[in-house]
Write a structure and sequence with these properties.
single chain; 206 residues; alpha/beta; six-stranded parallel beta sheet; 4 helices
Length: 206
């Protein structure tokens, strides 16, 4: 009965100044790092997921054409594999990440359960190999890739918890609905212990 932590898409393009920057994304990177300093040894597996799109096509219609993005199904160019925008935010401590998985390589993927490692091992196969039964989820964005990942995890039969203070969303109302949706399918919406102690203005707990 192994436990995994899934860190979803804490990338430069999804934080302030990026192509699809989420307000609070940079502070969240530091906050997740503080959480990892406290709790990394409680997990049997820590997985980092990233969008890793092609730079020479529209990734299955995911990148908008000349008509521009609708921000529902089509988006500005973002997280092109190998570019600074696709890199993890520098405030995210990746030293304790055991496995990195990549999604959206030519396809409009949202869920980390559509991601795979460089050697082609899918996230579901990876979790099965490690006999994971519980998946905790943090990251960006609550109303998009966190939501999709959590729902897929529940559909696959995992015990799922999303830490509401360790996610950041694009739209507050839509993010709240996403958390309600996760709860409705049996996921847990929990609060971490990161508010215990003093927090500096950047969000990292001292």
């Amino acid at each position: 009965m192994a436990r995994a932590l899934l860190v979803v898409d804490v990338q430069n393009d999804f934080t302030e100044g990026g192509a699809l920057g989420v307000t609070g994304g940079a502070a969240l990177a530091g906050r997740i790092s503080a959480f990892l300093r406290r709790h990394a040894d409680e997990y049997d597996l820590i997985v980092g997921s990233r969008d890793w799109h092609h730079g020479d096509d529209d990734n299955g219609g995911h990148f908008a054409g000349p008509e521009g993005p609708d921000f529902v199904d089509t988006w500005p160019v973002h997280c092109v594999g190998g570019t600074p925008g696709a890199a993890y935010h520098p405030d995210l401590d990746t030293s304790v990440v055991d496995v990195h998985v990549y999604k959206g390589r030519g396809r409009p993927d949202y869920s980390a359960f559509q991601a795979s490692t460089d050697d082609g091992t899918s996230l579901p196969d990876l979790l099965a190999e490690r006999r994971v039964t519980t998946v905790d989820i943090v990251g960006i964005a609550t109303d998009h890739c966190v939501r999709a990942s959590a729902l897929d995890a529940r559909a696959a039969g995992y015990d799922v918890a999303v830490y509401e203070d360790l996610v950041a969303g694009v739209d507050p109302d839509r993010s709240a609905r996403a958390l309600d949706e996760i709860s409705a399918v049996g996921g847990h919406v929990d609060h971490s212990d990161m508010d215990e102690g003093l927090a500096n203005p950047g969000g990292a707990v001292l």
